[in-house]
Records
---
Amino acid sequence: MLAASKKDNEMDKTLVSRLQALEPLMWINPGLGPTASVQVPVRPEQVAEAEKNWRLLGPLLQHCFADLQHSGGVIASELTEATDLATAMGKAPGRYFVKGDHALPVAGSVKARGGVYEVFLHALSLARQLGLIAPDATPSELASDAVRKKFGGFTVAVGSTGNLGLSVGIAARALGFRAVVHMSADAKPWKVTRLRRHGVDVVQHQADYGTAVASARQQAQADSTIYFVDDERSELLFFGYSAAAAELRDQLTERQVPVDANHPLFLYLPCGIGGAPGGIAYGLKQVFGDHAHCFFVEPAQSPCALVQLASGLKSVVTVYDIGLTNQTEADGMAVAEVSQFVAQVMQPLLSGVYTVADDDLFRWLALAQEHAGLQLEPSAAACLGGPQMLLSTAEGQGYLAQHGLDACIGQGTHVMWATGGSLVPQDEYQGFLQKGCALMV
Ligand SMILES: Cc1ncc(COP(=O)(O)O)c(C=O)c1O
């Protein structure tokens, strides 16, 4: 076993050993504080602003994407009660839902919420800056051949493990931009093929996600016609995701699912760089306050948010620092170093992080198909293990006791955030399923 490096000085040695042994575990965040008193570098009003911006973009989005024709340009996913699936996963009392971002329109993953938002807001601001539209023009005015033609002289670039690239690439091409996606070595070939079909230039790096992002950032810095979507630092991405909280609130209200001191809400959010789960969790804490208990999930080989938060925020800590490889089948979560921006925001807001073994991702992916008819990719299946981790581990039970939730846990609601999968090609998906079924016998 690898020795702990000097960077993990401040991380509990037992925790480091368990992470190095790749043991799926739950870590409870000692930094969690009351929502009302947190001091973080973003503001709740930014969530409301994002909700407003999404509404303003609606007609333009409807114009640009065939799959938004019937939703009035709204990018939203279904909330599905998943009692059978939860039972198959070893259900305890409470209600269980899957938030179906695996089937989000436009990009088939949670990344549609961030990538589309940032690219469309950038387009609006560029068009105003270039005088292509009046300062008070509505976004719909971007839907003209003249604007498209002008945008053809500009590039939108991004570094990605795959799904953000799909979202940003598709959005940029829909508006007429040139699009360049820098992909990490983990990116699945079908995502590369799909992007190229949309006319996106794909640069494939034989290196990890951090290197792909750094390379994209460097190229953009040298060329003023390139706009770089910075997954490691972008507030626009973060707030694009955050608007999902209001969507969930409305769906729970519609189903008369209460969320209050006696009806806690538990959320399980797959985490890579942290932008998507961080943005959603930040939004949820604004909507539900302390009654929302947000947990990230990460692959056992890539627990980047966990190692950073458990070490404190004084210096950057990566999964490599404790000898992990960052090799996982969950390509969307193959990230060695969490966004420092997200780590700062989540430090007082996150309830905890649990880790998952790759084999379990395939088992759960197969259960999701069998018991709920959901087509998930491995990263998304990670959300399904949350309730068991919370209810069955000593750490999870400790959390419930510490927050006085033992008595009302039977009235709790668990939302498993399924973040991607509907665009996975059938042959690839059948391979995932077969692997999951084989692991279950
Ligand atoms: C399917 C899926 N789930 C979760 C994530 C994690 O999102 P983030 O990297 O913003 O933490 C990703 C990222 O690409 C993803 O593709």
Note: The two ends are 30 Å apart (CA to CA).
---
Amino acid sequence: MARKSPRSRKKRTPASRVPRASRTRATPRTRRAAARARAPSRGAARAAHPAKRTRRSVQAGARALTRRPRPALVRKRPARFAPPDPARIEAILGILDRAHPEAQTALHFQNPLQLLIATILSAQCTDERVNQVTPALFARYPDAAALAGARREDLEAMIRSTGFFRNKTRAIQACCADIVSKHGGEVPRTLEELTALHGVGRKTANVVLGNAFGIPGIVVDTHVSRLTRRLGLTRELDPVKIEFALMPLIPRDRWTVFSHWLILHGRQVCVARKPRCSICPLAPHCPRIGVTAAS
Ligand code: SF4
């Protein structure tokens, strides 16, 4: 007689004795999974019962066969910017020179520090308004040390009418403190040193260099940005990029006056909303790029 193995001799525990917690209960989810496992796959079902060919399915098949492949999306490359013709630039410079012989900065100043402070004040403000404020300001605070050490409330009250007076007061005092601590109270004469001063960007630095020290610099303000684009001298929007785009086009000795010409022309003729193209002497040389309404 064959002997029973220890495993076969082991008593089976009746189901009733299995603790309730360890018994797996059928849930709707497990029931659905079990039904899916029992059901034949879709492929097998299709093989067993091939779909009926309806009129609609035949038409869809025909459409699929005749459908042309969709062309790949081709991104249009912007046309390359053609550098302006030097003869056209020379003609523009000559016309601007004749049209605005009086071109120079409208800000009143007697030394580089006064021009620097007046330029900071001219942000979002007219030059006329700045010129009304600065005589009293410079009489009371004649140098960088005096401005840096002024009572903030007093300075704010004096420049209030130029707008953004709190920010401007902060910028003036921080800039003057830098001038005193790093340059012995004298305004520096290089672009690098000027732009290292608190609150001084390339535009302000170029104004000071060109007008107080006679060192050429292209000042890119809102008028210069607008006019150089309309005239087709650049496509750039960023002031620093515009400045670098103009540098090789304009002779260096005319960088400063070129900015003055464009600022005056932008104020008087090529105004922002409706440029006066009908009376503009630059019209024969201007492609009027981006101009939609002119008078
Ligand atoms: S022609 Fe018109 S767009 Fe061109 S510079 Fe003159 S005013 Fe401006």
Note: Residues 165-183 form the longest helix (19 residues).
